[in-house]
Design a protein that fits this description.
It is built from three helices and 16 strands. The protein is mainly beta and 330 residues long. Helix 1 crosses helix 2. The longest helix has 18 residues.
Length: 330
């Protein structure tokens, strides 16, 4: 860190101060690397520059693209393509110094594609598909250095899944068909979470930066909504579970609705914990504003249901796609 500061100050001194100083009979060559020499220019060709070190008679040749600036003994200044390289290095060193021990605060928004991992779909032949919902929240990032950061977010997420089964056969002792019963089954489960992922992030690049992050998340379950539709041979049942819970059972021929209240959240574990792995890209607009895009995978490690609520364990799995805008605090 100290070396970077010294190097940046040296380069700035070269670019800003040297043009105001007279150097007698010596020319000054400033290279794209930031190095400076006192020399005598012999020739500036189409692609090369020929020069002699001060006090020597040997000719030296260097490509013009490696030279940023020449300050002639007369005071005249000539710039070359290498100046762009040098200025980019100065900008990079400035930003690198500012990024060290800095904070970023911002907002993120996007979508979550989620599902559940379980064995019960194999047992009953039920088709489980992913659920796509919007998400959003706040972001806080601490930049330990230009390379390493700690990233955290406070997100509102809806995770869940869709189930669909056709002609499912189960055993029912009260069934008139010898204890076997057949029905079609559709279910959508919506779990509303507040999530707190904490990630270690590796950064690379200059103005456009790539990121790799990994860590863990903790989520708290706020609410559960389940929508269930079952179609028997002579009966259709529709169940809506949540804040306004309706269980409606109606015989197709007679029409006799019945309503009951149920709270499915009692059967869920409120806390969820899991691992996170993701990649992203960001664009630094200026010293204060950064835009970002991130994609990550969340893999739950805690069973969603309590042991006495479901015969099979269910674990969250989700893919998050997040756009963000952050303000850099130096």
């Amino acid at each position: 860190m100290v070396n970077n500061r010294l190097k940046m100050k040296k380069i700035l001194l070269i670019l800003l101060c040297l043009p105001m100083i007279g150097f007698g009979q010596s020319d000054i060559l400033i290279f794209s690397s930031g190095d400076t020499i006192y020399a005598k220019l012999i020739e500036v060709g189409v692609n090369d520059i020929t020069y002699q070190y001060k006090g020597e008679t040997t000719n030296n040749v260097i490509k013009k693209r490696k030279v940023a600036k020449v300050i002639y003994s007369s005071g005249r200044i000539e710039t070359f393509k290498g100046l762009q390289v040098l200025e980019s290095k100065i900008e990079f060193l400035k930003r690198k110094e500012k990024n060290e021990n800095s904070f970023e605060i911002g907002v993120v928004f996007g979508s979550t594609s989620s599902n559940t991992i379980s064995d019960w779909d194999l047992q009953y032949g039920i088709n489980v598909t992913s659920m796509q919902r919007k998400n959003g929240g706040l972001m806080l990032q601490y930049n330990i250095s230009d390379l390493l950061s700690v990233n955290s977010k406070l997100l509102y997420q809806v995770k869940g899944w869709h189930l669909k089964g056709d002609n499912i056969i189960i055993t029912n002792p009260e069934s008139p068909d010898g204890g076997l019963e057949s029905f079609d089954y559709d279910q959508s489960v919506y779990n509303h979470y507040i999530s707190l992922p904490i990630l270690m992030q590796i950064n690379s690049g200059n103005k456009i930066r790539g990121t790799i992050n990994t860590g863990f998340y903790t989520s708290y379950l706020l609410d559960v909504i389940e929508i269930i539709e079952q179609s028997y041979i002579d009966t259709t049942i529709r169940v809506v579970l949540g804040d306004n819970i309706i269980v409606e059972e109606q015989d197709k021929n007679k029409g006799n609705p019945q309503r009951t209240d149920t709270d499915p959240i009692d059967g869920y574990n409120r806390l969820d914990f899991g691992l996170v792995l993701g990649v992203g890209v960001s664009y630094i607009i200026n010293d204060k504003i950064r835009l970002s895009f991130e994609s990550n995978l969340e893999y739950g490690l805690i069973n969603k249901y309590k042991e006495d609520y479901s015969f099979y364990a269910h674990y969250n799995i989700a893919y998050n796609f997040l756009f963000g805008c952050s303000y850099i605090l130096h």
